[in-house]
Write a structure and sequence with these properties.
The chain is α/β, with parallel strands linked by helices. Among the domains are: about 190 residues, P-loop containing nucleotide triphosphate hydrolases (Rossmann fold, 3-Layer(aba) Sandwich), CATH 3.40.50.300; about 140 residues; about 35 residues, no CATH class. The protein has 19 helices and 15 strands. A 6-stranded antiparallel beta sheet has the order 2-1-4-5-6-7. Helix 5 runs antiparallel to helix 13 and helix 8 packs antiparallel against helix 10.
């Protein structure tokens, strides 16, 4: 339920504050006075998409604050989402937008998003305007309205059909894709199988190419290596002059005098250790020299192996690691292809199951729709009688689709006849503007009865009507306001007389700037004057008399 709307710098409205009645809140004013702009601000607070054009010229930002009383379901949701309402406090949405287009939203004082507010906006208020009347000319909208009237069961069935349709479509696409790629898949399999066999036959090992390359480099230079090793061995352990001999002689010389020169004992020990190390080095060089033999068979084998590894690297990725990775991928392709027939059978069976579930779900939904249609027709016809269309006929026509779609197995279209004895024909082809407005009002009223505590906001629902019809529509709005909250922008006095709170919008031009003010009609005299203005353009005596009579009739009807 709406409680209060505070507007700052929205469009042409510099500042306004609206307190909503529990019943009917009516907004009137001259044509072009900005009545629809007021509802634009309400929609802005409820998360409607907007840009910086919403900010009043010469202002830095617009701020719209909506206070509302949530129902129990919305209270639970807000609490679960971290937007709990303190005891005794009203729930609020505050939305701001700057001239740079930057938007911010706070729900109950905590940061939120416009998208989040849009998710629950319909639980606060439903705005019904001329756009809705135009949508009523679209059969797809008829199906949506019918499912809404069908309630939770119909909406759940529709969601199930949509999910089944998506699942069946995806499975059909997967099966068609698999069959369509048969030739290319076979070629890919043959290529992968050849790669697996070739790589497996070669059995490359990580780092193998680097080890073999280093060994080939050694064999290519084995003569130089042998010469260097022989020179090193001769220097270390040659017969004529060698490191080991020289160090040994030095060690022996000092060893002979340590008894008379104890201070030289450490030096003698170091020389003895150096001799031992030199002997070890000489032995190691000798072993390396023995191993440095040229083996043409080994070199040929290494070159052949490196050729195999280079060919694999060129074909499958540039490195032994990449070759191994390619082998894993190729093995997976081979496995998938070998199970291709099995996968095809699985997909075929899954498609059959999904299509059966889709057909069954569509049949359930179709039955719920036909049950809902019978109830909707009865309720709407009763409403039309209260809207000066007592002889009208309303119906819902179904047409089966060739194939079950995302929304079910049928299309639905509202049919209408304004006169007794005439067959109902598609609403899109026969309704006048005034008739369309009343049919929309009837449908909205019926749908509202299936929902809890949602305010109904009408933006000139009275378009194209007048006279006795306007009186009937006003009376219906008045009765609707007895059981729920209604807000209405209107140009008809017959509707304005039912206001519990009445606001007048006025446009002002000053110094080249235009602003819109919103003032509440606070007493009987002001209200009478406004009704008279709506009747004749100015509050002259005849118009004032007529206005008082209308207000008196409304008061009598309301009691």
């Amino acid at each position: 339920m709406l409680k209060r709307l505070k507007i700052e710098n929205y469009g042409l409205i510099a500042s306004a504050e609206i307190d909503f009645a529990d019943g009917a809140t009516i907004f009137t004013g001259e044509t072009g006075s900005g009545k629809t702009m007021l509802l634009g601000a309400l929609g802005f607070a409820l998360g409607a998409r907007a840009d910086q054009a919403a900010v009043r010229r010469d202002a830095e930002r617009t701020v719209v604050t909506l206070a509302f009383e949530p129902d129990d379901a919305l209270l639970r949701r807000l609490d679960a989402d971290g937007f709990a309402v303190d005891a005794g406090e009203e729930a609020t949405v505050v939305r701001e937008m700057t001239t740079a287009g930057k938007s911010s939203v706070r729900v109950n004082g905590r940061p939120a998003t416009a998208g989040y507010v849009r998710e629950f906006a319909a639980q606060i208020a439903e705005i019904v305007g001329q756009h809705e009347a135009q949508r009523l000319l679209t059969p797809a909208y008829h199906l949506e309205l019918l499912d809404r009237f069908g309630g939770a069961k119909a909406l759940e069935a529709r969601a199930a059909v949509e999910a089944a349709y998506v699942s069946a479509s995806e499975l059909r696409d997967a099966l068609a894709s698999m069959r369509g790629r048969e030739e290319s898949a076979t070629a890919r399999f043959e290529e992968a199988r050849y790669a697996v066999d070739e790589i497996a036959a070669a059995a490359p090992e990580t780092g193998e190419d680097e080890r073999l390359t280093a060994r080939r480099r050694f064999l290519d230079n084995v003569e130089r290596i042998a010469i260097a090793l022989r020179g090193a061995h001769e220097a270390l352990a040659g017969e004529e002059t060698s490191v080991t001999g020289a160090v040994g002689a030095a060690s022996a010389a000092l060893g002979n005098i340590v008894d008379v020169a104890p201070a030289l004992r450490d030096l003698a020990e170091e020389l003895r250790a150096m001799q031992s190390e030199a002997n070890d080095l000489a032995a190691r060089v000798a072993r390396e020299l023995d191993a440095a033999e040229y083996n043409p068979m080994e070199l040929e084998s290494i070159n052949a192996r490196l050729d195999v590894l280079d060919r694999l690297k060129r074909k499958y990725g540039g490195s032994i690691e990449a070759v191994a990775s390619y082998a894993c991928e190729a093995e997976e392709i081979v496995r998938e292809h070998e199970h291709r027939d099995e996968r095809g059978k699985e997909l075929t069976a899954a498609v059959a199951v999904a299509e059966r579930e889709l057909l069954e779900g569509a049949a359930r939904l179709g039955k719920l729709r036909r049950d809902a249609a019978r109830a909707l027709v009865k309720r709407v016809c009763a409403e039309l009688g209260d809207l000066a269309l007592g002889s009208a006929t309303f119906d819902v026509a179904f047409e089966p689709l060739e194939r079950v779609g995302r929304s079910g197995a049928e299309r639905a279209e509202f049919a209408f006849s304004a006169n007794a004895g005439e067959a109902a024909r598609p609403l899109t082809r026969i309704a006048s503007g005034g008739e369309l407005s009343r049919v929309l009002l009837a449908v909205v009223v019926v749908l509202a009865e299936t929902r809890e505590r949602t305010a109904l906001v009408f933006d000139e629902i009275d378009a194209g009507i007048g006279g006795a019809t306007a009186t009937a529509v006003g009376a219906r709005i008045g009765r609707l306001a007895r059981s729920g909250q209604v807000a209405c922008v209107t140009h008809l006095a017959q509707l304005a007389t039912w206001a519990e709170r009445h606001y007048v919008l006025e446009k002002h031009e000053r110094r080249g700037a235009t602003t819109i003010s919103v003032r509440e009609v606070e007493n009987a005299a002001e209200r009478t004057n406004e009704i008279a203005r709506m009747l004749s353009g100015e509050p002259h005596d005849a118009a004032l008399k007529h206005a008082r009579e209308m207000l008196a009739r409304t008061r009598a009807a309301a009691t």
